[in-house]
Design brief:
alpha/beta, ATP binding (chains A, B, C, D, E, F), Cyt_trans-like (chains A, B, C, D, E, F), Rossmann fold, homohexamer, 177 residues, five-stranded parallel beta sheet
Chain lengths: 177, 177, 177, 177, 177, 177
């Protein structure tokens, strides 16, 4: 009997507690979850400070920390492509076969439903307090971002001085020469 | 004796009556018209809802409907390239040899005139009422878009449920996870 | 009622009588045919001497010459992409919706059948005498290539001095500097 | 204290017992292993029959089967880039920070040693009998390929009819039209 | 003994007196200067009117005019890449080995310092009056742009009618068809 | 009065005495020479061992050594593009305006003559003894390659241990894992 697989894609800049709650809940609904790390090619900007590799570490260690059965999840970095009409095939190329997509994004929902996939709304959580934007803002302003993320995220950011990187990037640039 | 060929490029999102009027008038001035479908790689967005293939059907059927002699036009989808300095060569690679370009766009006019082409202003029509923007707005808001387009456009949009696609895409996205 | 559409893809370097026979026979089986001009980005080599635009002219004029109803065919140039797993979506993006693919190529057959398309063998014709390779060889060696192609191909090749182009390209290159 | 991480890259077409032996031995030398799935963009050819996603499943399940501690490995699909001089940075972008590269390939060894990495020869195993080429040849010829691979590889290939795919791809193509 | 080389990158749209002052001062600090012409692929827009080739002429002739020793500088056009994490390697691929980067841009500073380069602030000059933006604005509005640039820039812009190009590009485009 | 400019393109792997002789002779025929460093993106292979930046140093220093007037030459690295029909525009984008192309390559000659350029055969020299292939072979086999190249090439290759690089790359690779 084939397994029921669902996919959930996020930029994870950085991995925070909201991601972990969503993954937990999706695992109650499917046999295996594919976790796509979106915009894998982006890094070193205020909105996307961390490389794909750094985000893979955060997520991998956070799931191991949490004791999630490693045969039940796949972590896949995904680069953007500039062709909406090829996006579903691109995701399929990079992932195990799946039948359900969890997304709240209208474009993603439209593209996958045109290809015959079942689209489900991702489980709810406290989105106002727990967002990548909130974590990054606290990092820049010296607030308590650590309470919003798993230990694995804290460890990786310390290992690479990620805190300093995002602060440096936030300094206003001098005008063009 | 070689034929005089003119080229006219538009995004055709979707094909509407203004495009058909322009094509009619250009055919009074040249032997053959090349109709470029621009930004062929874009689809599934509010500004570019339809794929290149869908736009080719609209245009091809609208010209057949109208009884335009098929030996007098060429329909060519064209992807964007991000190098202005290569744009003229890119268009030439994809098309029959031509000598006149019809365009109201300053960049296109400048690029082609630097390469020695004759640039002509496209024939006038009622641009305020007949624009891609107007057609797409009416589709989203449930207005009468059908009166602005040829039957071929209506038929194709019905065949692919294009109406529903653009409405879905217009729903406000939930905030980033 | 939706139309039955079939697709047939060839490099058409150049368009020859074999292509025209195949198109005729496919039109007996489907309502509309999509004719893909493959490897659209290639030109100016011994194996691919003609640009996409030049091949579009040959095919368009050959079909008009033959009196094929213009509402029954679509001519679409297609660039190669280096991702087999995205090829079917790429073709779908560029074309009207279709359900049948005509191909004798194992890779194409495999890719489309994995996506649920009906794959048919293209109609037979005299493939030994009528191939792009044979036409190009005769052009280089000064043989009678004209008997293998429709008039439209002869006209276009004369218009662009295509004969001279392929002969020049066949001169052995001097060694690298 | 930072962990010692080593990286090992292979195309894994498909994952076989030799890969598993190498991974076991590397894990005796480092804290964490990064396993790169190379040429991730290739699939559906005789030399590269499986998509990146299919290879991820094989490897992920084979490691779970074997009981390897999930906090000690990372599986990262890697697309080729056509710039040797950017390869090391590309690998670094996609992976956790690492200091040792395991490779028997001269180009890879040269590129990484120019950037100051420690390069180690991958642990030895019976390379004559255990290679991707041998597995694929047996699949095409109907031999016993199953004895060369972990159960996870067998399961995935059965799930996607991979056996039939590679046999179909091996049929000689008819000549170009 | 190896030479100390420093690199300075600018878009040079167009080359102006500020660039020349910076280059003079950097040459007091290093043995050889690498001058990168950034965004080499851009041209024919209001913000980037000139091609890479045109900018190379301006800079090359301005340095010869000034009598700078030709064995002490390198002029290298550099196309943008959309991967911040690969940018340093891309610059290294295109240039002689160097150890110091002169930049006032936070992203550039961060990327190069993560790779162990010494980052220095470019020498100061009168940035308010001497900027590419100021030169381009004066060209469009018919002001005295010539006083802000070296003779070589004036000569090249005259040779290619660059004045007319930027004026044409500044005409407001008619609305989309 | 506009200057007569000629262009000469070579891969320069590495710069050798034949290149210098050609440049000398072309400078007797034109006011300014544009020297294109071809396949700029390639490096670290047996046929293309050196990066674009390394080749720029060799050429720049060799010309300074020789006392060639720096206002009379331009050195431009050029990446390959996979579209023959765009090649002429790509070269034009990267270079000062020119009217003559020096090339012995049939494809280059055909492409530029179709665009109306004057094509000249590069001046002759002893091509059997003086080729990039010969220099690279001697480097691998430990022969006297130094006598075939200018001092600038020797200096740069010593600075980067280029000798060792090409020897390492020539070691036969072990079979695929």
């Amino acid at each position: 009997m084939n397994k029921v697989r669902g996919i959930f894609i996020g930029r994870m800049q950085p991995v925070h507690n909201g991601h972990m709650q969503i993954i937990d809940k999706i695992l109650e609904e499917v046999d295996e979850i594919i976790i796509g790390i979106g915009s894998a090619q982006l890094s070193h900007s205020l909105k996307n400070p961390f490389t794909a590799g750094e985000r893979v570490v955060m997520l991998n260690q956070a799931l191991a920390e949490r004791g999630v059965d490693p045969s039940r999840y796949y972590i896949i970095p995904m680069q953007d492509i500039n062709f909406n009409a090829l996006w579903v095939s691109h995701v399929k190329m990079l992932t195990p076969p799946f039948s359900i997509i969890y997304s709240g994004n209208q474009l993603v929902k439209q593209l996958f439903s045109e290809e015959g996939f079942e689209v489900r709304q991702p489980p709810l959580y406290d989105r106002l307090r727990l967002s990548g934007t909130e974590v990054r803002t606290r990092m820049i302003e010296g607030g308590n971002w650590e309470e919003l993320v798993p230990n694995a995220t804290i460890n990786l950011i310390n290992e690479i001085n990620g805190d300093e990187r995002i602060k440096n990037l936030s300094i206003r640039e001098i005008s063009e020469i």
